[in-house]
């Protein structure tokens, strides 16, 4: 490919909404002129010249009445689909993304924010500062399993998590040492009881700067505000998309690989004999 050719192709595609929509539409398989017109909301005089130009650029090919992407067109379509989806994520709640620290997320997961899909941002307001937490607890009560990572502790969470464990639901948490110390002092009975269950697993991580929970049907996440280290407890992201749940599971595994079990030397003496460190995290109900 000649120098500058890549920039020419990208400019060619993004400068026309019809061409971009056509590329993304055909990434799902072959299409007729009629189906392309419907997908792009175009007339024949408007779309045919664009299809011919894309053919000349070797991005698509035609066989009979059907159009399909070339091998290079398929690769370009996937990259542009992700770029478009990422832009849509940011445009959905621009104030949130402009005010929160994305660097709190590991880089490879920052590149996958498009997987949040049609998420919501829940914000506290002056009349109801507990909106994010109330919605979180309501959803958590319906979960069949739970994975979580957190450098912060809300006073309602120990009981909410323990309730799941008592019901036999698999729960695996990764917390910072500071949170573990706080639970040990402020919620010793809940901690002692929770560690007795075979379906509960607790690990320690030293470098978590984001708080998130993933269950069988939702993904919830909190990030720090710009320039802050502490997680913003008054604003959260909530997504029910399968792609977001998959993202959450893989994000959990990322932190799990850098965590260690709560073993006796790291645990308070009162927990001696009650520790559970070998419980495998639950397997999501879908394949990924």
Walk me through what this model shows.
It is a single chain. This protein is α+β, with helices and mostly antiparallel strands and 288 residues long. It folds into two domains: 5-82, Arc Repressor Mutant, subunit A (Orthogonal Bundle), CATH 1.10.10; 93-271, Endonuclease, Chain A (2-Layer Sandwich), CATH 3.30.870. The protein is 43% helix and 16% strand. It contains twelve helices and eleven strands. An eight-stranded mixed β-sheet has the order 4-10-9-8-5-6-7-11, sandwiched between helices. It has a three-stranded antiparallel β-sheet with strand order 1-3-2. α2 (17-26) packs across α5 (71-92) and α9 (157-166) runs parallel beside α11. The two termini are 35 Å apart.
Notable characteristics:
disordered C terminus, 11 strands, 3-stranded antiparallel sheet, 2 domains, elongated, alpha+beta, 43% helix, Endonuclease, Chain A, 288 residues, 8-stranded mixed sheet
Secondary structure layout:
Blueprint: H1 5-14, H2 17-26, E1 31-32, H3 33-40, H4 44-56, E2 60-63, E3 66-69, H5 71-92, H6 94-99, H7 107-110, E4 120-123, H8 131-140, E5 145-150, H9 157-166, E6 170-175, H10 177-186, H11 188-194, E7 200-204, E8 211-215, E9 219-222, E10 235-239, H12 242-256, E11 260-261
Helix pairs in contact: 2-5, 9-11
């Amino acid at each position: 490919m000649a120098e500058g050719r890549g920039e020419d192709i990208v400019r060619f595609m993004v400068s026309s909404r019809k061409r971009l929509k056509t590329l993304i539409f055909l990434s799902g398989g072959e299409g007729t002129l009629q189906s392309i017109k419907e997908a792009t909301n175009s007339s024949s005089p408007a779309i045919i010249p664009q299809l011919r130009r894309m053919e000349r650029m070797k991005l698509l090919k035609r066989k009979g009445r059907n159009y399909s992407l070339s091998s290079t067109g398929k690769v370009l379509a996937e990259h542009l689909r992700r770029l478009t989806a990422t832009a849509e994520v940011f445009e959905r709640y621009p104030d949130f993304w402009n005010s929160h620290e994305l660097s709190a997320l590991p880089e490879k997961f920052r590149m996958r924010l498009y997987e949040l899909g049609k998420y919501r941002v829940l914000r506290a307001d002056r009349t109801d500062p507990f909106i994010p937490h109330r919605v979180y607890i309501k959803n958590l009560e319906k979960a069949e399993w739970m994975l979580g990572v957190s450098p912060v502790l809300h006073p309602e969470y120990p009981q909410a998590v323990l309730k799941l464990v008592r019901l036999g639901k698999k729960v695996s948490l990764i917390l910072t040492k500071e949170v573990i110390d706080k639970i040990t002092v402020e919620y010793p009975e809940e901690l002692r009881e929770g560690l007795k269950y075979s379906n509960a697993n607790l690990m320690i991580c030293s470098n978590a700067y984001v708080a998130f929970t993933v269950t069988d049907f939702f993904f919830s996440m909190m990030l720090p505000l710009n320039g802050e280290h502490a997680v913003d407890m008054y604003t959260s992201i909530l997504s029910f998309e399968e792609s977001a749940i998959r993202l959450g599971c893989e994000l959990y595994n990322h932190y799990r690989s850098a965590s260690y079990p709560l073993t006796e030397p790291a645990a308070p003496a009162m927990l001696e004999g009650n520790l559970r460190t070998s419980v495998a995290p639950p397997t999501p109900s879908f394949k990924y």
